[in-house]
Design a protein that fits this description.
By secondary structure, the chain is of the alpha+beta class. 32% of the residues lie in helices and 16% in strands. The longest helix has 18 residues. It starts with a helix and ends with a helix.
Length: 386
């Protein structure tokens, strides 16, 4: 992947049809007589990898209470042929935004932050035009602060120093002199800048590094042992390698840029199992009180990026996905080498995590994206027992 391309890219047990050890024909991606949701999900997973130009691998983790079903196809590493494992590390991309939501709402529940606290209160050195923007507006992307990752100055800084990211606050430099976006409708505008500021407010309110708050108030309480927010590009071994699948050949881009370039908006590293545990605990309200959970679940029109299955709506650090099989809550993610979808029922009892080791977008890979969204929906249906 070229440096320019990188800047753009920034923006278990296998079972089939309920029969242990059975799998779809990887060459055709079809199972004769496949009618159950579980079987159709396995069939679709195999079909995605078998598609010409498809991703090297995909892993889906479906959980019903304490029961876990892991469906995989393809490989985690093209060089070695290692299979996809639900305990392997991977980049969560924008699912990291749900972690910043979790940290912030945990502090709100503890009374250390308020949803009505302003940027000016905690971060007075940031632009005065942002001073009246509240934590609530940052969490539901109605702040109207421009997205730093879409700026030419950011792309230039990234490509000139892929392996060395600046301090988090400096990520906002390219948008500090820009006016707020013009109001449209409900003011929703998905912006990576929002979650950088959320994490900076968390640091200021807690009086300690954001990474420490994540450990103390998110990873620890949920028992996440394979999750971290690194600053560099290295991934713990073993890990699911991420690929640029554009012709002529897939290119491993797993460690091509430092995680600090996206920090709280996209830098979290986790495993499929940890991601599932996180979304169940986060959505299920294990990290904060009922009042804070109720506030989180106030939704307005807005779609995650990339869009999740069904009709999307945005809450505080969470998206609602209303599908033909039922409603789940979570987040999507997309970055160089990885595409993610994590979602849970409101009570945290059922969940689905879909992880692909390639960046698949509705604009660049529309056919593959359509297949992937079908898998996301089948995963939701399987999780909900439909």
């Amino acid at each position: 992947m070229t440096a320019c391309g990188m800047a753009v890219a920034l923006v278990g047990v296998l079972t089939a049809c309920g029969t242990p050890g059975a799998s779809a024909d990887a060459g055709t991606g079809t199972v004769p007589g496949c009618r159950t949701t579980s079987c159709r999900l396995t069939d679709a997973v195999n079909g995605l990898v078998a598609t010409d130009g498809g991703p090297p691998g995909i892993i889906v983790v479906v959980q019903h209470g304490t029961a876990t079903r892991t469906v995989t196809a393809g490989v985690a590493d093209l060089a070695t042929g290692a299979p996809m494992e639900d305990t392997d590390a991977m980049r969560l991309a924008s699912v990291a935004k749900a972690f910043s939501g979790a940290a912030a709402l945990a502090l709100v529940g503890q009374g250390r932050l308020s949803l009505d606290d302003t940027v000016g209160k905690w971060l007075p050195t940031l632009p005065s035009t942002w001073s009246g923007i509240t934590l609530r507006q940052l969490l539901d992307h109605t702040s109207r602060i421009p997205d730093f990752s879409r700026q030419k100055a950011f792309a230039q800084a990234l490509t000139s120093s892929l392996q060395q990211a600046p301090p988090p606050a400096q990520l906002l430099t390219s948008v500090e002199g820009l006016p707020l976006l013009a109001p449209e409708g409900n003011d929703y505008n998905y912006s990576n800048s929002d979650n950088i500021i959320v994490a900076l407010m968390v640091q200021a309110a807690a009086g300690e590094p954001y990474e420490t708050v994540l450990q103390d108030d998110v990873y620890g309480p949920l028992g996440l042992t394979g999750t971290s927010l690194p600053s560099g590009s290295a991934l713990p071994s073993p890990y699911i390698h991420g690929y640029d699948i554009e012709p002529p050949e897939p290119e491993d881009v797993s460690t091509v840029f430092a995680a600090g370039w996206t920090w709280a908006s996209g830098g979290v590293v986790s495993t499929p199992l940890d991601a599932s545990t996180f979304v169940r605990g986060y959505i299920g309200g294990k990290l904060f009180d009922t009042a804070t959970h109720d506030a989180q679940f106030h939704f307005i029109a807005g779609s995650s990026e990339p869009p999740g299955p069904g009709t999307n709506a945005v809450g505080l650090g969470v998206f609602r996905y209303t599908t033909s099989c039922g409603t789940v809550y979570g987040h999507t993610g997309n970055t160089a080498g990885y595409t993610q979808f994590v979602a849970s029922t409101a009570d945290g009892s059922r969940s689905v995590t879909v992880s692909v080791n390639a960046q698949i977008t509705p604009t660049v890979n529309s056919d593959l994206f359509g297949q992937l969204r079908d898998i996301d929906l089948l995963g939701v249906c399987d999780a909900l027992g439909r």
